[in-house]
């Protein structure tokens, strides 16, 4: 049972890491760029075996995935920044109102 879980976790990690430009192969070894059929370039484990546990990823696809991930990251960060700016405006207003209240009470 534990063995199945480990295999599942491993496959999941491979699938998850198999998105964007790989820094290392799923097995932890270095990746090289290789030119394949029709001049297509691939990120590939230097001694690639097609056993499902090593990477051979089309460079163009990896770049597209990477750009899409970066675009999503930027969208998320812009959204977070806008939310924070609104919060700061709200808090600034509250501080001004509190200052007025404090001034009003010390003038009594
Ligand atoms: Zn590998």
Shape: elongated
Spatial extent as radius of gyration: 26 Å
How confident overall, as mean pLDDT?
Answer: 87
In total, the number of domains comes to 1
Question: Which residue ranges are poorly predicted, with pLDDT under 50 across at least 5 consecutive positions?
Answer: none
Structural class by secondary-structure content: alpha+beta
The total count of helices amounts to 2
Kindly, what is the distance between the CA atoms of the first and last residues, rounded to a whole number of angstroms?
Answer: 75 Å
Total beta strand runs: 3
Report on the biggest sheet: 3 strands, antiparallel
Bound molecules: zinc ion
Order of helices and strands: HEEEH
**What is the beta-strand fraction?**
5-15%
Strand adjacency order, main sheet: 1-2-3
DSSP helix fraction: 55-70%
Protein name: Zinc finger GRF-type domain-containing protein
Keywords: Coiled coil
Coiled coil: 60-108
């Amino acid at each position: 049972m534990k063995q199945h879980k480990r295999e599942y976790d491993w496959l999941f990690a491979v699938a998850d890491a198999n998105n964007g430009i790989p820094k290392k192969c799923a097995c932890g070894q270095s990746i090289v760029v290789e030119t394949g059929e029709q001049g297509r370039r691939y990120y590939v484990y230097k001694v690639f075996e097609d056993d499902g546990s090593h990477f051979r990823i089309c460079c163009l696809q990896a770049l597209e995935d990477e750009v899409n991930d970066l675009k999503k990251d930027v969208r998320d960060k812009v959204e977070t920044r806008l939310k924070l700016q609104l919060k700061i405006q709200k808090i600034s207003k509250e501080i001004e109102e509190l200052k007025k209240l404090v001034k009003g009470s010390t003038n009594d």
